[in-house]
Design goal:
Oligomer: single chain
Distance between the termini: 23 Å
CATH topology: BirA Bifunctional Protein, domain 2
Bound molecules: adenosine monophosphate, zinc ion
Shape: globular
Number of strands: 14
CATH architecture: 2-Layer Sandwich
Structural class: alpha+beta
Number of domains: 1
Largest sheet: 7 strands, mixed
Helix content: 25-40%
CATH superfamily: Bira Bifunctional Protein, Domain 2
Length: 303
């Protein structure tokens, strides 16, 4: 496709070609059959690439225990992104008040109560509690595919409120975990470039909240804890992160009492392919019609 980058034009093209279906809420559009086909085929390619690693597969619902979100410190670090599930647990009188307000066009949400769950903000979070205790020799490697929620409404088709991540999570000896993260960074770059994406890697930070958050983000960059692979999708100057690689050091292993087989300290790292973003990067790079994509790309995805 031409090297013109504009948010509105790209969004309009996605809608016109029934790749996405607007719902009236930013970052909450539906995905069409062709979009889904690309996304699932890319995910399958990742799984094939990593097959020999023998990752254990886990699957979780897109909700997390509220207590787990609290324990992870998510509300200290990213309250602006959190999503909470509320429901009605009141009396009949209160229910009548709710419907009364609804019919009168008044706000009603304060009549709901928080449930025991929140929306999952990362696919790997429910995995860590399962590592508690002594790890097997050599540590563990797990993969999950999960829907995650982030409260960041935006007109950019690449910034969604609900999207999927294919994650790999490694836990074990500090050295082995960093090596694994670095190896995957090279592997991820090769995989994405092999699909014709002009992908580059860079150090990165998470959007920690507030002034203290700015310091945490700077520290994250200093220590080179997070890397991203980026590709231009809606802007040439500000390429979009399509894959992230995080070394958590002992952040999760300390919280969940995870230790190596010999009881020494364990580290964790994870990587996540943003599946919608990779799909959008492929569409931006190769065009709205996958039948017309370069043969070398098609062969890898549609073989
Ligand atoms: P993070 O946990 O923020 O590093 O995100 C992991 C990956 O998910 C990123 O590399 C992106 O590919 C993707 N991602 C993050 N935020 C969004 C979003 N708002 N919409 C779509 N994809 C996202
Ligand atoms: Zn993760």
């Amino acid at each position: 496709m031409s090297a013109v980058y504009d948010v509105e034009g790209f969004y309009a093209g996605l809608v016109e070609n029934q790749l996405i279906y607007p719902t009236g809420v930013q970052g909450a559009y539906g995905r069409g059959a062709v979009f889904e086909d690309i996304l699932r085929r890319f995910d399958a390619l990742v799984l094939r690439t990593a097959e020999a690693d023998g990752a254990e597969e886990m699957m979780f619902p897109p909700i997390l225990p509220r207590a787990l979100i609290e324990k992870l410190g998510y509300l200290e670090n990213f309250p602006q992104l959190a999503g909470s599930v509320h429901s009605f647990a009141g009396s009949e009188a209160r229910a009548r008040e709710l419907t009364g307000r609804l019919h009168d066009g008044q706000r009603w949400e304060d009549l709901l109560d928080p449930t025991a769950v929140m929306l999952a903000p990362a696919a790997c979070y429910p995995v860590y509690p399962n590592f508690s205790g002594l790890l097997p020799e050599g540590g563990r490697l797990v993969t999950v595919l999960g829907w995650v929620y982030r409260h960041e409404p935006s007109p950019e088709p690449t910034r969604l409120q609900s999207f999927r991540m294919r994650e790999y999570i490694r836990v074990g000896a500090p050295q082995a975990v960093v090596q694994w993260r670095d190896d995957w960074l090279a592997r991820g770059l090769a995989l994405l470039r092999g699909l014709g994406l002009p992908a580059e890697s860079d150090v990165a930070s998470d959007p920690f909240f507030g002034r203290v958050g700015k310091m945490m983000a700077a520290n994250q960059v200093d220590q080179r804890l997070k890397f991203e692979i980026l590709a231009p999708v809606i802007s040439q100057d500000k390429p979009t992160a399509i894959c992230s690689f995080n070394w958590h050091q002992d952040h999760f292993s300390a919280k969940f009492g995870i230790r190596q087989a010999d009881a020494s300290v364990a580290h964790t790292a994870c990587l996540g392919f943003g599946l919608e973003r990779v799909t959008l990067a492929l569409i931006k790079t190769h065009g709205f019609e996958p039948e017309a994509w370069p043969e070398a790309v098609r062969q890898q995805l549609w073989s």
